[in-house]
């Protein structure tokens, strides 16, 4: 019998991670799985509320599951990433990263640009990149398989919008994904 009480999907630079939490409300058992791998297992805990902290992904991002009593024997489970609620973290992340999903030669790729560091990730791997200044902004070049890729960074001309990042593979512009 499983005591699975919560499942979350968390999009990080190195991929989308699945976090599952089992909570035995009679035994106090707590089990955390990240991408199907057991990260934490605690049996026979007398305190049924509290928190479990662990890391997720290649960048060892800090995650915490909070267990709170709502009423009687009902519990609420919330996930925090880097100290922020999952919703806040994802809202902030959409401002600090760009994500593109594409298929090249029959293979699916997820490319993520971290705007603060200009790091580029593809399917969980941090890519070797070469940056250069061009007339209207910058270009960050990298390869995916046999394909040469370029992320162009150009000013929008509007302060609120800031810099516009565009992924170009060959001579094709890849539309940005919404995660």
Summed over residues and divided by their number, the pLDDT gives a mean of 92
Q: Poorly predicted ranges (pLDDT <50, ≥5 residues)? A: none
Q: H/E series, N to C?
A: EEEEEEEEHEEEEEEEEE
**C-alpha-based Rg, rounded:** 20 Å
Shape: elongated
Beta content comes to over 45%
Describe the overall structure.
The chain is mainly beta and 179 residues long. Helices cover 6% and strands 62% of the residues. It has one helix spanning 86-96, and strands spanning 4-12, 15-23, 30-34, 37-42, 50-56, 61-71, 74-81, 84-85, 97-104, 107-114, 119-122, 125-126, 130-134, 137-144, 147-155, 163-169, 172-174. Strands 13-14-15-16-17 form a 5-stranded antiparallel β-sheet, with no helix packed on it. A 4-stranded antiparallel β-sheet has the order 1-2-3-4, with no helix packed on it. The protein has a 4-stranded antiparallel β-sheet with strand order 5-6-7-8. Strand 6 (61-71) and strand 7 form a beta hairpin. The longest helix is centred in the middle third of the chain and has 11 residues, at 86-96. The mean pLDDT is 92.
List keywords for this structure.
4-stranded antiparallel sheet; 179 residues; 17 strands; 1 helix
């Amino acid at each position: 019998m499983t005591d699975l009480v919560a499942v979350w999907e968390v999009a990080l630079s190195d991929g989308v991670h699945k976090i599952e939490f089992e909570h035995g409300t009679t035994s106090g058992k707590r089990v955390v799985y990240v991408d199907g791998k057991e990260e934490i297992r605690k049996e026979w805990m007398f305190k049924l509320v509290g928190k479990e902290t662990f890391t997720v992904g290649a960048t060892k991002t800090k995650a915490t599951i909070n267990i709170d009593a709502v009423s009687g024997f009902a519990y609420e489970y919330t996930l925090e990433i880097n100290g922020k609620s999952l919703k806040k973290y994802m809202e902030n992340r959409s401002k600090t990263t760009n994500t593109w999903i594409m298929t090249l030669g029959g293979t699916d790729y997820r490319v993520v640009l971290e705007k603060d560091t200009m790091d580029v990730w593809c399917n969980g791997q941090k890519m070797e990149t070469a940056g250069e200044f061009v007339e209207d902004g910058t270009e960050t070049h990298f390869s995916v398989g046999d394909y040469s890729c370029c992320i162009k960074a150009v000013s929008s001309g509007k302060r609120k919008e800031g810099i516009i990042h565009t992924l170009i593979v060959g001579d094709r512009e890849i539309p940005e994904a919404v995660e």
